[in-house]
Amino acid sequence: MKSRIYLSSPHMSGEELVKVQEAFSSNWIAPLGPHVDAFEREMAGYIGVGHAAALSSGTAALHLALIMAGVGEGDEVVCASLTFSASANPIVYQKAKPVFVDASSSSWNLDPGLLEDELEAASKRGKLPKAVVAVDLYGQCADYGRIAPLCERYGVALVEDAAEALGATCGGKKAGAFGRMGILSFNGNKIITTSGGGMLLSDDEGLIKKARFLSTQARDTAPHYQHSTIGYNYRMSNVLAAIGRGQLTVIEERVAARRSNFAFYEESLGRLPGISFMPEAQYGRCNRWLTCVLVDPQASGATREDIRLALEAENIEARPLWKPMHLQPVFAECRAVGGAVSEALFEKGLCLPSGSNMSREDQERVIDIVRKCCKGK
Ligand SMILES: *Cc1c(COP(=O)(O)O)cnc(C)c1O
């Protein structure tokens, strides 16, 4: 059996171990320390936002963002339907109700037209959502040129889930810099990783200070342990921040490698009948975290599941697109606005192995199998 090709595996630069060694030498093996502070500063600088709080996961960052947006029991929160469940789960942690809005077929992200309809209707009903969670899917920013002014007009907090999109841009600004708050993930399969971790970003220093407070059990200023608020244990470890700092030094190389993977797949498979690629929106740069294709079985002679299974038989990991949240059993009771676009994308969509450490040879293995599957009818 040939060696396994993963969808997206960690890719260290060498600099991480140097920084982890520093953490050990100075005995900062704690959920605070100089690497945490430096990682926050360096990430805020890279993205171009004022402030950042390093946390234990992207999900934790999103949870704190919703708490600080004032989301509570019975509130509605608009969320992109085509995403990973972690975008929506924190809404339910807050006992609020997700409203899932469909994707636009040109960006695969939150459809600004549907969002506008929903906000207008909600305004007429007299109950606006407490927040909008927009997702930068597969490393492509949502259309913030349209989404941000809409949220502003209705006075609804915009939270950007940029977990998959570090290094992407929209209109010259970097992913993570949009909305009142943005979040990143450094989970093991993301474009850079700390094994697990996340970050909350904002230009509002007060929000970031509050996030640091809430993420370390909400201790009041007192010599003893005193608490007036419920806190969380969500802070990032200094050891993992050391890994993150090493990873951040190579982010532009990682984006270039993922984009190059995409270009090679497109060049090799783009003319096959029934195969098309995730479009890149004109307003920015996608980091191509994962290369996603759509498989039209009428034209190609294969379904996306045929191709996934053929790849799996050769020890290659591929994955269907995210199953939309409005189709998930756990969210069956939630309201949905539209849904046909994300349903069609889910039915036809497949994510190909896309790690920045993949060789051309690995890609050739994938390409050969996809070609064999798509002989046309
Ligand atoms: C990975 C991911 C998250 C969650 O990040 P964790 O660090 O794994 O908690 C949230 N949203 C999206 C879109 C993701 O892909």
Account of the 3D structure:
The chain is an alpha/beta fold and 377 residues long. It has two domains: 15-250, Aspartate Aminotransferase, domain 2; 252-373, Alpha-Beta Complex (Aspartate Aminotransferase, domain 1). It contains 13 helices and 14 strands. An eight-stranded mixed beta sheet has the order 1-9-8-5-4-2-3-13, sandwiched between helices. A four-stranded antiparallel beta sheet has the order 10-11-14-12. α4 links the parallel β2 and β3. The mean pLDDT is 97. The structure holds pyridoxal-5'-phosphate. Residues 57-59, 83-84, 86-87, 135, 161, 163-164, 185, 187, 198 line the site of pyridoxal-5'-phosphate. Pyridoxal-5'-phosphate binds next to α3.
Question: Which terms would index this structure?
Answer:
2 domains, Aspartate Aminotransferase, domain 1, eight-stranded mixed beta sheet, about 375 residues, four-stranded antiparallel beta sheet, Aspartate Aminotransferase, domain 2, 13 helices, alpha/beta, binds pyridoxal-5'-phosphate, single chain, 14 strands, globular
The CATH topology of the largest domain is what? Aspartate Aminotransferase, domain 2
Total strands: the figure is 14
% residues in beta strands: 5-15%
CATH top level class name of the largest domain: Alpha Beta
Binned, the helix content reads 25-40%
Mass-distribution shape: globular
Number of helices: 13
The CATH architecture of the largest domain would be 3-Layer(aba) Sandwich
Structural class call reads alpha/beta
N-to-C span: 31 Å
What is the average per-residue confidence, as pLDDT, rounded to a whole number?
97
Oligomer: single chain
Strand order of the largest sheet: 1-9-8-5-4-2-3-13
Computed Rg: 21 Å
Which residues sit in consecutive blocks of at least 5 with pLDDT less than 50?
Answer: none
Q: Profile the largest sheet.
A: 8 strands, mixed
Number of domains: 2
